Amino acid sequence: MLERKEVPEYALPTGLTILEQQELRLNNGVPVHFIHGGTQEVTKLDFIFSAGVVQSNKPLVASMTNTLLQEGTELMSSFEVAEKIDFFGAYLGQATNYHHAQITLYALSRYLPELLPIIEQIIKKPALSQHEFDVLLAKKRQDFLVDSEKVKNLAYRKSQEVLFGSNHPYGKVAKLNHFDEILLSDIKAFHQAQYASNLCTIIVSGQPGNDFLALLNTHFGGNDWSNSTEDNQYVPEVNITTERFHLEKKENAMQSAIRIVRPCVAKENPDYLPLLLLNTLFGGYFGSRLMTNLREEKGLTYGINSYMVSFLKAGIFGIATEVMADQRELAVTEIFNEMAKLRNHTVEEEELTRVKNYMLGDLMRNLDGPFAVSDAFRGLLGFDLDFDYFTSFEQTIKDMTSSKLKDLANKYLVEDDFYVVVAGK
Amino acid sequence: MIEIQKYTLDNGLRLVVHQDKTTPLAAINLIYNVGAKDESEDKTGFAHLFEHLMFGGSVNIPSYDMPLQHAGGDNNAWTSNDFTNYYLTLPASNLETGLWLESDRMLSLDFSQKSLDVQKKVVIEEFKQRYLNQPYGDIPLLIRPLAYTTHPYKWPTIGADIKHIEDATLDEVKSFFYSHYAPNNAVLCVTGNVEPADVFEKVKKWFGSIAARELKKRALPLEPKQTQMRELTVVKDVPTDVLQLVFHMCARTDPEYYTTDLLSDILSSGTSARIYQSLVKEQKLFTDLHAYITGDVEKGLFTFAGNISDNVSIYDAEKAIWKEIERIKSTLVSEYELQKVKNKIESSMMFAEINFLNKAMNLAQFELLSQAEDLNLEVEKYNMVTAQDIQKYAQSIFTEQNCSKLYYLSKNKNQVEC
Fold first, then answer.
1. Do strands B14-19 and A419-424 pair parallel, antiparallel, or not at all (unpaired)?
2. C-beta of residue B304 within 8 angstroms of C-beta of residue B291
3. Cβ-defined contact of B100 to A371 (cutoff 8 Å)
4. What confidence score (pLDDT) does residue B415 get?
């Protein structure tokens, strides 16, 4: 007879296996981190520059520059660039954050010799033409207007402003007038200053073939694209408000978006990894306290989560959800109730084990395969951290106890330290 | 090339196994041949609501999620008009936990009134979050009933009306389960660091004793051939005008599917594609514009969707789309352009083969539609499409009488005279 009520035997694998990473350098000193693995002959290349919001002195400039790089070069039109990339079955992506901007190429490895010359032109000799600038700006402006109709974006933007102040790079959110103030000359100057070999890091992952370093040297290893810009990651003091409650009104909203946020530690702080566990238990996975209470018991929302963000110089602990507009106060009360429970009561062993096992499984998922490892590694750039971070994360999970969790909750989940931002009603 | 092993249990459950030793993990994907098209018109949104209830505890196991989390697993599910798909990943050594959980909820659910009451509220919030409280979120609710008069594709998976979800009863939930959820109406696919023979034994152990069920016969009403252009205009408080043109197209299993997919790629895949280059970049009529196909099991839709630039009339912008349509109907695409979209397909299939969960989902869907082995023939089928095929197919579907159009106008935009 099949024992359907009994859980079949299970055990978590011991020891995390992470694909190894090699530290290489191009002839001009550009660091190349190489993560070798996978069965397919494909490669992911990240070119990462100190060209984020922190390095720019005007809103939108960092992200506009990064996007515009792909829109044509001195030798090729924007169409020619796009057509070549498409023809070789490659994908070109880009992303900009506070401290860095990146260009990512996914390619079949056999076409790297055809593709790298194009990437070289994009980075060193982009056209940055007025026409492409106008098209891109019009699109970004419309996207901004559409995004501004979404309560979750309104709440997010306000929460950044509340936490850091509107003059701080982390708190400076885009406004409609910024779209009228940005000029092509800003983009050109920013490219000139920040997209240089001395500000560049490359991450290679996958199966790029034996010659990839020579190929990278051919296109990026010379001294033709350096400058004298310092790698400046300075951010000023935070100017935090004392006002704890912020409402961004939106008439006719059927749901209100809630962000409850506090300043928190960054990745290098010894509390960061233990806090990730508290965060998961509190609101970081489907079985979390917040999901169980607000979704699975009360049906107030489609989803709620808590999260931790670490920029280079500061972090955030936050909770985000969208709830029925007339139940907003109940939702906020319940979120703080769940914090109080973690401060005042010890977590049961069953729940702690469940969170630990889930997180150990998740760590395996997040480090599975060369591309995943390269993404995880990119998250460490700029910090004084290396791959040991992941093994100490694994150890932190295993060593966690209920009493440590309670101490952490009493240190970080304190109601008076949080700011409540609501968009909607 | 994805190597697979296949087995069929006596109760009709089909199993596909693919070994991938590069990962320490395993994936289980269980797809049921039931979707929103199997709902009745006055009870829409039911298949999707039901998907939520599948997480509310099964006959022998009070919580689905907790034991899975204990075993280091994670899971999710989705519902489309055609299918309901459940998937999970976990360390490969704990595969049995996943099979135990999936088999118990195939055996029977807990059917609790409390779970139904809560999930109705959750789904209603999902309805608001995705469709009603977002600019343009209600487009699927407008365009589907315009394009389909009869076929159940005329409502989206979330449902046509919140009221249908509010009215769902526990009896309806039970009868839906027993007429659609059955070993003989599902495909199970296991991928990752597993031994096929061992998977087969374990699947037999957990699923073998679930009896086959009598399924509700599927008799979908046929959509009558559209004979004239349909048009709908709405004016809403949104920042900009949006245009959608939709055309009826073939089904996923029709041989023309590959031609249709490449036709949409020629027009819109990647930034070098035609309509993006011509209408967004050169003429600046749209700030964004895409052409895409649904890939539904039944005859689907070919959609053009674009955001109109400020100071451009939506009617002028529409004319420009028709001009591009004329161009592809009257002139053969060049060999280079065709090769470009074929290369892109080949590389995207190669990238899709990296992830073991992705493979599990694709194999399960292919097995349900025809046979899992066919996944390996996809590139070849795309490669056989000719420029003539594309032109001929464009001529057959891109006609005024096969078109439905939605003008989604911004209340605040100064409407330009046409």
1. unpaired
2. yes
3. no
4. 55
Number of alpha carbons in the 13 Å side-chain half-sphere of residue B297: 17
Question: Same structural domain for residues A206 and A319?
Answer: no
Residue A309 and residue A99 in contact, taking contact as beta carbons nearer than 8 Å:
no
The one-letter amino acid code at B26 reads A
Please report which confidence band the pLDDT of residue B238 belongs to, taking 50, 70 and 90 as the band edges.
very high
Reported pTM: 0.95
Residues of B in contact with A254 (CB under 8 A): 128, 132-133
- Judged against a pLDDT cut of 80, whether residue B327 lies above it is answered with yes
Query: Based on the domain organization, do A310 and A419 belong to the same domain?
Result: yes
**Do residues A269 and A418 both lie within one domain?**
yes
| B336 CB neighbour count, 10 Å cutoff | 9
> Which of B271, B278, B283, B341 to mutate to probe the A interface, most A CBs <10 Å?
B271
User: Which CATH number does the domain housing residue A203 bear?
Assistant: 3.30.830.10
- State how many domains chain A has: 2
Average pLDDT over residues A44-55: 97
User: Per the domain annotation, does A7 fall within a domain?
Assistant: no
| pLDDT > 60? residue A116 | yes
Q: Do the chains contact at B350 and A42, CB–CB below 8 Å?
A: yes
Point out the residue among B74, B97, B307 whose CB comes nearest to the CB of A7: B97
Interface test with A, best of B119, B129, B358 (most A CBs within 10 A): B129
CB B300 within 8 A of CB B249: yes
Which chain A residues are within 8 Å of B20, Cβ to Cβ? 39
- CA–CA separation, B163 and B184 (whole Å): 32
State the pLDDT at residue B384: 98
Q: In whole angstroms, how far apart are CA A345 and each of A348, A409, B26, B70?
A: 9, 10, 36, 22
CB pairs under 8 A between A and B: 210
Burial class (CB in 10 A: 0-12, 13-18, 19+), B410: buried
* Closest CA–CA distance from residue B97 to any residue of chain A (Å): 6
ipTM surpassing 0.85, yes or no? Answer: yes
Mean pLDDT of A6-25: 90
Query: Is A299 within 8 Å of B125 when comparing Cβ atoms?
Result: yes
Residue B224 lies in a domain: no
